[in-house]
Amino acid sequence: MTDSTKPQFFLPPIYDSQGGWGPASDVIPQQFRDIPYAPYSKSDKLGRVADWTNPEGQKQDNNQTAGNRQGRTGFNRFNRDQQQAYGASFASAFAYTHNEDESSFSVVDNRSAGTKKQALKAVGGGNVRNNRVQNNNNKQNGGGYRTVNQRPNNNGGRYQQQNNNRRRYGYKDYDKPQRVRNASINIGADWKVLDEIEFSRLSKLSFGIPTAVDIGSYGSVNVYNKAYDRVNTKNEKMLTHIDRVKYDTTTSEDPIIQKYIEENKATVFATDSVLSLLMCATRTVYPWDIVVKKTADGKVILDKRPGGVFDFVTVNENSYDPPAESEKDTINSWSALCNEATYINQNFSRQVLDKTAHKFENPNPFATTDTEEELASCGYRYREFDLSNPGTENEEDKIQLIVRTEVDAAVQVGDTTNYVTVRALNEFDPTAQGAGGALPWKKSLDSQRGAVVATEMRNNAAKLARWAVQALLADAAQLKLGYVARHNAKDNSRHVILGTQAYKPRDFASQMNLSLNNGWGIVKAVVDMCLQLPEGTYIMMKDPNRPILRVYAVPSEEDLDDEYEEEEEEEQK
User: Fold this and answer.
1) Lowest mean pLDDT among 14-18, 351-355, 357-361, 414-418
2) What long-range pairs does 463-466 form, CB within 8 A, spacing at least 24?
3) Does the entry feature the keyword NAD, yes or no (predicted)?
4) For position 295, what pLDDT does the model report?
5) pLDDT, tens digit, for every residue of 486-525?
6) What is the 8-class DSSP label of residue 19?
7) Hey, is 418 helix, strand or coil?
8) How distant is the alpha carbon of residue 570 from its chain centre?
9) 313, 484 Cβ separation under 8 angstroms
10) I need a labelling partner for 491 at 20 to 30 A (CA). Which of 113, 115, 361, 464 fits?
């Protein structure tokens, strides 16, 4: 065989376009040089060149079936690769545009009045009023949500009312209006932003759990009454009002912490409520703020602001549709529910205790001669944590943190006395806005306890995480949760105790997927940042509408006092 008869292959010429995307200008035929080239855009969807996983024609059948089943031919998971061809966003460059004026064109209906009336009846025009009423009812009974399992309203609206309460949540959630919340404190015009930290960065931090050392205990606690462990929905107990005094003094005004600051026992000082909020910051939705004070000798005090968010208990903060934040005085508004939950927690923790008291080493540091007999059960345990970097040997580089923790009750197990943190979850109205799809407790608490707890963990993730962290910081053996509901859903002044449940704090945190290493990582990062600040007063604030933590420099501490006085005046009005 000669060389001329052998099969030969020649590489095609490669043209390099020096001007950017598209073919080289010197190889475009003359008749095509004036046609614009469709550029590439990031918004263009590039589908598969070939799909070898599905037989030929199956995708088209699936598209038709899915479109008929859903009642539309829009986007679905079967035709996602055919939604937009390459370069479709620039199709207008090749589209034909008609520039003539067509405003004078109109369609004229030449049918008689009688024919129009018959056509209107044929398409249901005679029921226009009923359709309007039905549309109004749909708006009132779900807004943008779609109900499922609806039956014809043949029994006086009974099925309709039941099914309207069974909404398929999650449908068109993106279409809900975004809530705009106000900041927890008014930002002054002369406040300077020092730093902004996204929650996504905070969630990646980690630090080893430090070992705690008890350095002092004060106050006294009563023994938990085990009779409340037998309370259930069939044997409920009324919640009673018990007037007691409990001091929740800020960090800087605590006389014990002031003594530790003078003795130079630590570098950073805080309370368990402030520290737990920092450790669970990434779960919070509502705005909050913490006062940071840097002293001249390098001490850092993490303080709360009087009248701030620390004095109230939130309700369904993490729900997909939280309670309404309206100014109207309704019992299911956000502010009313916070006051109700705070009242329930205070009285529940006092009602479930016996009169037998367990005293700590030192008396209550906040008590006076007038309030000794009216003090609520509370034990203050001051504990020290080492936040130094691993391998730090120099005493000047070590970071010690002193935290004032609290316990609410004591439980006697043999010869050992264990401490308990007592909290209460509350139910307001399962059918009201902000209920978060909760089951009615009076019907489901005994038979579906797991479902009720799971719903509360979802709707109150931030609150329950803070409670678990506070119990861990105080080294409490148990976290006792009470379930308190309204005696009547329309009355927020009378409540009943439907049951109690005890958890080990570490197990409870594990059930909520709460990472303690991440929490201590957040505390470590905040402490390191505060130690680098110059002497002064600062505000660490969670943005009211975005998951961002901001740090402001406050010119003087008097500005914070002025803000507190203004808030008190607004509340009195």
Assistant:
1) 14-18
2) 463/313, 463/314, 463/317, 464/508, 464/512, 465/276, 465/280, 465/283, 465/509, 465/512, 465/514, 466/273, 466/276, 466/277, 466/280
3) no
4) 93
5) 999 999 999 999 999 999 999 999 999 999 999 999 999 9
6) T
7) strand
8) 27
9) no
10) 464
